[in-house]
């Protein structure tokens, strides 16, 4: 009922021009961020699970009660300090005893996850604020569990600061740019295994385990850097500079990996035995709860077998503890959802062995106890285990692949249920001890709301309802998003959404902009709110459509992994089928259909236009992959194996090899300093189009990375794409 009432409100206000006068502009989405949702910033649970803290105005940390959601006190406030060395901070973390706080300032992004910063330590006992180090910016500063020390990385070496005495001990000395990295990942690990810290404190604070990357033999990729503007690199005023880094492309040499355990008492490093095979990945390190064993995750190069080794931190000796295998590849959730329970008697894994992602319980000896979740749905996140109530909490797409709910199941499976009262997309952040959780909720017609619940699912307080945003929305005429489903000629059911033009008239025909990403296990068709550039296009008379093809997430392993060994084939087939389906709708102008996408979506734009021919009058490919042999080892080989093992899979589905199939007008866009999908892709694709006598348009953004932003860049890009679509389709 609530969704019917809210939908009526949105129709009367957002969707009805009688109640709204303002029009959307490109600046709303690229400069002013007019419709940005408010969130709860810097959320941390206290150790006792009774309170939580948030970051406010990048100046103060405020404590609230879980019991009633009310403010308890201001834990830290920069404005209350005399002659504070810093004016603001962007993140913070507490020591386990909560007497000290690490503050992150002057953050400088390196790649997607990694950054350097100046860290400061606030001691609430002595009321002193001091820099962690004054010898250069640091990475990944982390308290030891006892709060006495902080480990961090600088210049590819690991350091440990003893807070009591202010001494700084250097753990490693061999760090060198483009050669040896200690304690933080190399480029491909960071990008594809999604982590930025490659060290871990033992629970008793006696050891620091870390990964060492030897990328000496990894081939380099270089990018020209120009002077540019915003920022201006003045050193490149007369001659371009060059940025060179290690980037292993499919089939090439990866970093050689080693793992060490550093004994703080003896100040000695012990190398862990990883076995005889050296062409491996170590994507995670974790400690058992009793600190007796270091768990080392050893993944084979093909990524279809992962071993969990238990290593003795005193000797480096290791033994095989657990193995997971898959006929195609190990699901990405396995790494983060492999959890040792606090009692140390059990551990949990997320496995796809029955065709869907589900949680399994094992005992300390590595024997399966039971499957905790079961059914034709995917578990999409594992929140943890309440050791007092013996309850597991997790997120799943049980009702629909387009939605998410929060669930619980007891250790013996006798108790289970949901904690999500509303249909849509729910995401939980639990308190320490799992007495409470903060639920982030959104749906097609509801901007994010943040609500505090107890672990029985009873509402305590709404923390943020984005009321101001909803009031602002009522001032505009905005077309709402709606779901649809269709069946392809191969009998595959696909989900999509569409945004119809403002003042939609079913008797008229409208040009179409198809948007998609389509990458493995991704999802764009989800029950979540947004007002974006797509709504602007709808205001300008376009019908905007998105379809999730085969290969995307939350529909089980077979749907997700059908693209194995032939990335691009089924996804582009399905996008072409989607375009054909749209031509059957009476309100679609079948002669004016376009498709666009970014990154994998750009790759998909090229392939779809090549296969669809006259179906697509225009297309925009931003930062596209032209052939996956140009992309990195970890991502590409996970889905394709190496080019030597699977030559046909690479070449048959490479847009670079089929440019003559494009009959519509194409706009290619790329950043000249894209460290992820290299400009090489677009330059080679452009040459292939030229030699095939296919006319196209092109835009290169100076010194911009994969995100293509900075200064006026995003505004210029979206204006360029919008003008292109209008010129080609209207």
From TrEMBL:
InterPro entries in UniProt: AB_hydrolase_fold (IPR029058), Pept_S9_AS (IPR002471), Peptidase_S9_cat (IPR001375), Peptidase_S9B_N (IPR002469), Serine_Prot_S9B/DPPIV (IPR050278)
Q: Show the SUPFAM superfamilies listed in the entry.
A: alpha/beta-Hydrolases, DPP6 N-terminal domain-like
Give residue ranges for domain Dipeptidylpeptidase IV N-terminal: 95-447
Source superkingdom: Bacteria
GO molecular-function terms, A-Z: dipeptidyl-peptidase activity; serine-type endopeptidase activity
GO process terms (BP): proteolysis
Q: Which UniProt keywords apply?
A: Glycoprotein, Hydrolase, Protease
Q: Which residues form the Peptidase S9 prolyl oligopeptidase catalytic domain?
A: 529-729
Pfam families registered for this protein in UniProt: DPPIV_N, Peptidase_S9
- Full protein name: Dipeptidyl-peptidase-4
- Species this protein is from: Sunxiuqinia elliptica
């Amino acid at each position: 009922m609530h969704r019917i009432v809210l939908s009526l409100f949105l129709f009367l206000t957002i969707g009805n021009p009688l109640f709204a006068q303002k029009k959307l502009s490109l600046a709303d989405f690229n400069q002013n961020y007019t419709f940005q949702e408010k969130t709860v910033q810097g959320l941390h649970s206290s150790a006792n699970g009774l309170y939580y803290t948030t970051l406010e105005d990048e100046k103060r940390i405020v404590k609230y009660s879980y019991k009633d959601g009310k403010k308890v006190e201001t834990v830290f406030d920069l404005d209350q300090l005399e002659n504070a060395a810093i004016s603001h901070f962007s993140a913070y973390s507490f020591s386990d005893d909560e007497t000290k706080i690490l503050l992150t300032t002057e953050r400088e992004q390196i790649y997607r996850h990694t950054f350097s910063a100046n860290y400061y330590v606030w001691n609430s006992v002595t009321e002193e604020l001091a820099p962690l180090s004054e010898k250069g910016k640091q990475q990944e500063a982390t308290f030891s569990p006892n709060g006495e020390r902080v480990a961090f990385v600088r210049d590819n070496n690991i350091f440990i600061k003893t807070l009591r005495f202010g001494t700084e001990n250097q753990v490693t000395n061999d760090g060198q740019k483009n050669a040896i990295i200690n304690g933080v990942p190399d480029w491909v690990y960071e990008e594809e295994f999604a982590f930025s810290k490659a060290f871990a404190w033992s629970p008793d604070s006696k050891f620091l385990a870390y990964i060492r990357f030897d990328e000496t033999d990894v081939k380099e990729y270089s990018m020209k850097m120009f002077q540019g503007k915003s920022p201006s690199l003045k050193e490149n005023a007369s001659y371009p500079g060059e940025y060179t880094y290690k980037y292993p492309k499919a089939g090439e040499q990866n970093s050689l990996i080693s793992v060490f355990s550093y004994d703080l008492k003896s100040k000695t490093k012990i190398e862990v035995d990883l076995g005889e095979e050296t062409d491996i990945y170590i994507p995670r390190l974790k400690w058992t709860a009793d600190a007796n064993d270091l768990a080392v995750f050893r993944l084979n190069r093909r990524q279809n077998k992962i071993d969990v080794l238990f290593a003795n931190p005193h000797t480096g000796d290791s033994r095989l503890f657990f193995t997971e295998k898959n006929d195609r590849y190990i699901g990405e959730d396995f790494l983060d959802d492999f959890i040792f329970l606090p009692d140390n008697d059990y551990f949990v894994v997320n496995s796809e062995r029955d065709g869907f992602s589900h949680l399994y319980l094992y005992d300390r000896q590595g024997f399966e106890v039971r499957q905790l979740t079961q059914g034709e749905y995917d578990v999409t996140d594992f929140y943890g285990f309440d050791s007092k109530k013996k309850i597991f909490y997790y997120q799943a797409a049980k009702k629909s692949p387009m939605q998410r709910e929060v669930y619980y199941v007891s250790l013996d499976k006798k108790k289970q249920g949901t904690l999500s009262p509303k249909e849509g997309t729910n995401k939980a952040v639990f308190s320490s001890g799992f007495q409470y959780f903060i639920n982030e909720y959104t749906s097609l017609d509801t901007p994010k709301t943040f609500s505090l619940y107890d672990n029985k699912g009873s509402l305590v307080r709404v923390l943020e309802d984005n009321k101001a945003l909803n009031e602002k929305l009522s001032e505009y005429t905005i077309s709402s998003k709606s779901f649809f489903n269709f069946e392809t000629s191969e009998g595959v059911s696909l989900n999509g959404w569409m945004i119809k033009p403002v003042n939609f008239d079913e008797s008229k025909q409208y040009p179409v902009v198809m948007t998609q990403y389509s990458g493995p296990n991704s999802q764009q068709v989800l029950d979540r709110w947004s007002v974006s550039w797509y709504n602007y296009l709808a205001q300008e008379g376009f019908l905007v459509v998105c379809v999730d093809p085969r290969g995307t997430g939350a529909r089980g392993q077979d749907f997700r992994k059908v693209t194995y060994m032939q990335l691009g084939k089924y996804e582009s087939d399905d996008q072409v089928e989607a375009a054909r389906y749209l031509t059957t709708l009476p309100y679609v102008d079948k002669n004016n259909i376009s498709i666009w996408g970014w990154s994998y979506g750009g790759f998909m734009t090229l392939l779809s236009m090549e296969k669809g021919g006259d179906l697509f009058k225009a297309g925009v490919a931003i930062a596209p992959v032209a052939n996956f042999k140009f992309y990195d080892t970890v991502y590409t080989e996970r889905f394709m194996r190496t080019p030597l093992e699977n030559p046909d899979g690479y070449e048959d589905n490479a847009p670079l090899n089929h440019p003559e199939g494009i009959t519509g007008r194409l706009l290619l866009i790329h950043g000249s300093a894209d460290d992820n999908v290299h400009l090489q892709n677009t330059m080679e694709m452009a040459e292939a189009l030229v030699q095939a006598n296919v006319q196209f348009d092109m835009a290169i953004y100076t010194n911009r990375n994969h995100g293509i932003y900075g200064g006026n860049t995003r505004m210029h890009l979206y204006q360029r794409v919008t003008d292109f679509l209008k010129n080609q389709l209207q």
